[in-house]
Amino acid sequence: MLIPPARYFERIQAVLRRHDVLLVADEVICGFGRLGRWFGSQRYGIEPDLVTIAKGLTSGYLPMSACLVSEKIHGVLRASSREVGPFAHGYTYSGHPVSAAAALANLAILERERLVERADRLGALLQTRLRERCAGHRALADVRGVGMIAALEPHDPEQAKALASLLLADGVIARVVAGSIAVSPPLVLSEDELDELISALARALDKLA
Predict the structure, then answer these.
(1) What is the pTM (predicted TM-score) of this model?
(2) Number of separate domains in the chain
(3) Are residues 89 and 13 located together in one domain of the fold?
(4) What is the pLDDT along the chain (209 residues), one digit of tens a residue?
(5) Domain that holds residue 52
(6) How far is the C-alpha of 124 from the C-alpha of 133, rounded, in Å?
(7) Which of 72, 91, 112 lies at the terminal end of a domain, its last residue?
(8) CA-based angle 165:171:177, to the nearest 5?
(9) Of 101, 197, 98, whose CA–CA distance to 150 is shortest?
(10) Other CB atoms closer than 10 Å to residue 109's CB: what's the count?
(11) What is the DSSP track for 1-36?
(12) Helices then strands (H, E): number in the chain?
């Protein structure tokens, strides 16, 4: 839940390209609309060589993961296969038809209901209202986030567990991650539900303080 400084990935990529080092983007959490783009890499101008994806592919209804491969990498695999044979990467449950069907259905819903665009709009609203209601609260050291993901960091890392318990008692599920509270609402969140979430966070912070 740490936001990169401006131009961070731009400068990192320049170093990697200079030394011919591959860039792997982990999009298990940041992919499929969470940051208001299909992939978090698009939000930060990252051009990865490999992209790992998982739960967003099926919306978590069935297990499935994948690795997206750039044309550069694919070209090497394709050319080498003529000499050493196909790139063998199959496992017992690879491409399981039921999980694949769930993934296709999920992707169709994301496109049809324009949930990525919705996440971009509501994510901006979430970040604005979080900062209006929670930033500067005496119980918090920091409020940060992008799109439909945010973190609230108490001054004392041990207080994150207490904050999570207060939220759960008020009907909000949040994770404790490295001394912070992680908030990742669903992409179908309504504006009323967003306001309800922010109010619950504010109530929990007041109780914690």
Answers:
(1) 0.89
(2) 2
(3) yes
(4) 899 999 999 999 999 999 999 999 999 999 999 999 999 999 999 999 999 999 999 999 999 999 999 999 999 999 999 899 988 877 888 889 999 999 999 999 999 999 999 999 999 999 999 999 999 999 999 999 999 999 999 999 999 999 999 999 999 999 999 999 999 999 999 999 999 999 999 999 999 99
(5) 8-112
(6) 14
(7) 112
(8) 45
(9) 197
(10) 12
(11) -PPPPTTHHHHHHHHHHHTT---EEE-TTTTTTTTS
(12) 8, 7
Do the domain assignments include residue 2? no
List the structure tokens of 155: 């001054």
| Side chain identity at residue 185, one-letter code | P
Q: Please answer whether residues 180 and 39 qualify as being in contact, where contact means their C-beta atoms are separated by less than 8 angstroms.
A: no
* DSSP secondary structure letters along 130-174: HHHHTTT-TTEEEEEEETTEEEEEESSTTHHHHHHHHHHHTT---
